[in-house]
Specification:
The complex is a heterodimer of chains A (342) and B (164).
Chain A lengths: L14 E10 L12 H15 L11 E4 L5 H9 L5 H4 L6 E4 L5 E5 L5 E8 L3 H18 L4 E2 L3 E2 L11 E8 L1 H5 L3 H9 L3 E8 L4 E10 L7 H27 L2 H16 L5 H16 L8 H10 L2 H8 L5 H16 L4
Antiparallel strand pairs in A: 1-5, 1-8, 2-3, 3-4, 4-5, 6-7, 8-10, 9-10
Helix pairs in contact in A: 1-4, 2-11, 8-9, 8-12, 10-12
Chain B lengths: L12 E7 L2 E7 L1 H6 L5 H4 L4 H9 L18 H7 L5 H6 L1 H12 L18 H14 L5 H20 L1
Antiparallel strand pairs in B: 1-2
Chain lengths: 342, 164
Amino acid sequence: MDKWYMEDGENCDAVICSKVCLLRNMRGVPFPWRMNESQKELAELQVRSAVFDKNSVLYGKFKLVEMGRISENEAVSLAERGLADADFVSGGAGRDIFFNGNESVSITANGRNHVSIQSLTAGSDIFTAYEAADKVETVLDKHLDFAFDSELGYLTPDPINVGTGMQASMLLHLPSLTDVGAAARISSNLSKIGFSLQCVYGSAAKPRGALYVISNRVTLGISENEILSNLKSMALQVIKREREARKELACDIKVQDTVYRTLGILQKARFMTDDELFDLVSVLRFGIEAGIVKNISYQCLNGLTLQAQPATLTLNAGRPLTQDERSARRACIVREALGGAG
Amino acid sequence: MLCQYCGENPAVVYIKVLSDGRISKYSLCAECAEKLGYGNFFTEMEYDFEGVLKEFFGEDADVSGEERCGCCGASFRDIARSGRAGCAECYEKFRGRLEPFIRRIHGSAVHLGKSPDGSLPQLKESRQLAVARVKVKRASGAGYNKRLGTVRRLKQPEEGETGG
């Protein structure tokens, strides 16, 4: 089965993916950070029985991974593939993760919240991501007594998430706005109206890879639909500006030269570190977005980026690898994916 | 411990990030955490937990005999220090203290989103009114007057009760 990132997505020339997380907690038991071992185990079993209920529409669709039974490398690979965050995968025993075949929907138990339902889609279709997460939440709600207050909505350990308990975000690639220095200004303006635009790597002053996450900050006093509509509308305004800035850059012969040189390195290199690949992929993605490079799809780029990440690469090799072996294998994966293209 | 990003202020937020196939841990001050997108409840509000504690307990707070949640045992001090509630019941126990912060961060303390099916008590009439007021406030332009009528109808019983 193709993974979610190998599918077509709307506005994928600037939006890599959309993500919705629904955070839920159970009534009558402490939140995970204050639970003892037996409370953790009980919550774990309750979530398992809800996901694996034979009468449920979820039955047979999710695979369970017990965090206490996997290696550190396998755990990190889960985070690299976007199935859970670094905090969850480093928590060890007492935590479970369930995910479906194309890895678009995952359910984590006993992370920062008792239950977190995450859904990913390629491109900007955040409503589809929400629908998938909401469907799972509605089923789990029938089995688990989710803590809800008629005034404060769904109750979470972090009061910044109460209300809808929903974190919605989009991963944007904004190389042109970064290049002209506008991304930091847009980020500052968005923060004044309840949104956050943060660079994923590096700092606001020195972003790396031109990857940004736009997300909602307000979760109370607003419906899920309004949050998603507002977020999408903001993201579309940002990417409109990216496309305008991109047009100018794409005409510059020096920029075109950089893109082609980058493609050359990616197609021929025999040794490539994770950091180098990260920087080069951002330039190549810009080349595709700007129409300079043709015949390479976003899906191909997404696939190779995920497969070439350190822990996932080691996991797929089936044995421990040294850093040099990883760099050699990474270059090989990239060559195979891009060989002869462009 | 000092913040690993600026090296100047004390670290109050601890984060884990992916780095070259491993999980790395970092300690950040409130300002850098907010700047890098790792803020928590109190850093979001530009508060440090000491500031929150002083706001509620004064400079020389006596920790003995402080109120604790019956479900998880957390005190408000524990919540302020960690930036997290201990359990769902903490919101009921410390509602008066938490609600102003929640209102400040969200601009509202009225849930307008999805509700669990069936098992829930319906909104109290006063809350129905609060929800309707928020909705009307937002309904600028066309349709405003129509919605206003709904609020007026809801408002009557409350006024009647006050008068009686």
